[in-house]
Design goal:
The structure is a single chain. This protein is globular. It has about 130 residues and is mostly beta strands.
Length: about 130
């Protein structure tokens, strides 16, 4: 029974949020979009234990694609790269490559991510 509880907890923690996608000329299945809370490694071991809200966009299609813009909550949630570095667009992807966005809004407030590319746009909704 204990192993079952541990497996259930581990499964729950590894599935950050459910997403659904729709598109405007771009198949939403070209990207995998995940939202997660992660321990900030720069503060681990110092007693702070800060948490980063991270949105990961990963190309899962074999064709190259360039992301030209990402909006989180219709632009109401800003983001940076790790350590507050600016993200410059376009970002070019091959299969398996990803972009990690460090969000400046609460984890549970993210409901929509819009991705514009050189081949169309897609929206992802988080529940």
């Amino acid at each position: 029974m204990n192993k079952f509880k541990i497996m259930m907890i581990a499964s729950f923690l590894s599935i950050p949020l459910l997403i659904s996608g729709c598109s405007s000329g771009l198949d939403p299945n070209r990207f995998e979009v995940n939202l997660a809370e992660e321990n900030n490694p720069s503060f681990m071991g110092r007693g702070f234990g800060l948490i980063d809200n991270v949105l990961t966009i990963r190309s899962i299609d074999s064709a190259p694609i360039s992301v030209t813009k990402v909006d989180v909550n219709n632009g109401r949630c800003s983001y940076t790269k790790q350590f507050d570095r600016e993200i410059k667009f376009p970002q070019h992807f091959q299969i398996g490559q990803s972009l990690r966005l460090y969000l400046k809004c609460p984890f549970n407030s993210v409901v929509k991510v819009d991705i514009e590319t050189d081949q169309g746009a897609a929206s992802y909704s988080f529940k």
